[in-house]
Amino acid sequence: MSSGIVSRLLSSTAAAFDSRIIGQAATALTGKAAVLKNDAQESHFYPTLIDTFGRRHNYLRISLTEKCNLRCFYCMPENGVELSPKAHILADDEVIRLASLFVRRGVTKIRLTGGEPTVRKNLVELVGRLNELRALGLRSIGITSNGIALHRKLSALVDNGLTHLNLSLDTLDPQKFQLITRRTGHDAVLKSLMTSLDSPGIEAVKLNVVVMRGINEDEVLDFVGLTKELNIAVRFIEFMPFSGNKWSHNKMVPSADLLRRISERWPETEAVYPGEPNGTARMHRIPGYSGSFGFISSMSDHFCGTCNRLRITADGMIKVCLFDPKEVSLRDIMRSGGSDGDLETAIGLSVKDKKAKHAGMENIDVVHNRPMILIGESDVLGLTHMDESGKPRMVDVGGKAITSRLAVATGSIIIPAHALDLVTPHTPDLSTSSFVRRHSRCAQLAGIMAAKATSSLIPLCHPLPLTCISVNLLPVPDELKIVSEARVSCDGKTGVEMEPYCCISVAGKEMIISDIKVVHKSGGKSGDWTRPH
Ligand code: SAM
Ligand code: SF4
């Protein structure tokens, strides 16, 4: 057990252990049971939210934003994701209108998520407005947060009706935190944890820990140890695949393995029975400990049979399953003047279309879906770039065969209007066009030089024997931009994707480069790939 972290936790909020909180710990199960009993008693359940397998969807997760103040590598790329235009995100009134419709049709629990919900403007007021839906049958308002900013808003949120908190924290080690989230702020998350335990209005605090082989699996016993003093439910989540997050089977640690390790350390471990109806986690506890722990085994042991969740994305799409890419825009229905009846019809059709399990796909590790936050192509410090203790290392490609490889990346360079004039080919001024040619050549040369320098610019990137680099620039005058395309080939043991990235990432100070992505690659073990349009 990392005694350092526990004593820091203990000393940072001594109040968490006063008799009131310990009393709260002792009665936690009773309190939870009371909430669940209410759920079971609900009488106003409408067919709209019942699917063809008889599952009653009384739990709604609403994403309030695509933005986040962390960059967890399993969730989003280092530079963030391409955000939807602000106007596409649901306004407060639209969130409330949908929430109210769902509550009137039988939803009793709402959880706010994201992105990071605490970065949403007016979050406190929004929670206050949701709280008014209690009169219609809403029983709990929860939030899933990374805890960076939460501690500052928690007391106002609780005053406005927040009752449940899921806090995400994958490591007890501040340095590893930085490696996983690419940001600092470990202390702030701990502060949120302790502040929430000290908030009588919060009925349950759950700690979400995504377990990844070679990254934080060695901390599982430490997390379980926290439940001795803290009345928290630690939930170990199996690392899930989303387009671009470099998921692979061997990075996922099956929950059964974790339970075996925990039971070896604490043979007295017992299952909490019955668990929460519709609960995603199979919970366990160690007799005499204040809290509990469990597993969300979406990959190895799905819980689809009892799934009661529906999701609304920040841009207003209803998603009936996290793994089902199919979405219907409730926002568009609202904005085109649709009535509540129209919304209900669309919701009902989506719910009836829900598959028995994991969107009907047997093999979800190939799923191409939005991540929980939107995902882009991620070529950042992936898991293969760390050793067992989390230290950075180059991937060993020694045993791989040399193959001919090609990667193509594109990007957009937004440039000032006067510069665009110079690169527009129909200019009548010959001296200008030679100026243009010269500058295009400069840009092409700069790109080629950048591609050649990739292994020195990108940490842990292998130097590759490049065989050809070409750069094409296509002005798009109407949009004040130049579309650049870089093609780089090599005969090598590993992929050549980073080189075209670097190639199109060089620009002057007045320019904005955006939308950089690999659009095609060929060669290597994983074969050919072309980005779908
Ligand atoms: N930003 C908030 C947070 O981190 O708590 C809320 C949104 S986050 C997407 C919700 C939860 O999804 C977090 O607990 C996070 O750890 C989990 N998550 C994100 N990507 C995941 C993945 N690839 N596999 C498993 N869990 C993941
Ligand atoms: Fe942000 Fe949460 Fe995703 Fe981490 S898991 S990047 S905190 S949205």
Structure overview:
With about 525 residues, the protein is an alpha/beta fold. The protein folds into two domains: about 1-350, Alpha-Beta Barrel (TIM Barrel); about 405-530, Molybdopterin cofactor biosynthesis C (MoaC) domain (Alpha-Beta Plaits, 2-Layer Sandwich), CATH 3.30.70. About 30% of the residues lie in helices and about 20% in strands. It has 15 helices and 17 strands. It has helices spanning about 5-10, 20-40, 90-105, 125-130, 150-160, 175-180, 185-195, 220-225, 255-265, 330-335, 340-350, 415-425, 430-450, 455, 500-505; strands at about 60-65, 110-115, 140-145, 165-170, 205-210, 235-240, 270, 280-285, 290-295, 310, 315-320, 330, 405-415, 465-475, 480-490, 510-520, 530. The protein has a twelve-stranded mixed sheet with strand order 7-8-9-6-5-4-3-2-1-10-11-12. A five-stranded antiparallel sheet has the order 14-15-13-16-17. The longest helix is centred in the C-terminal third of the chain and has 23 residues, at about 430-450. The two termini are about 50 Å apart. Mean pLDDT is about 80; it is low at about 1-5, about 10-40, about 360-370, about 375-385 and about 425-435. Bound molecules: S-adenosylmethionine and iron/sulfur cluster. S-adenosylmethionine binds near residues 113 and 210.
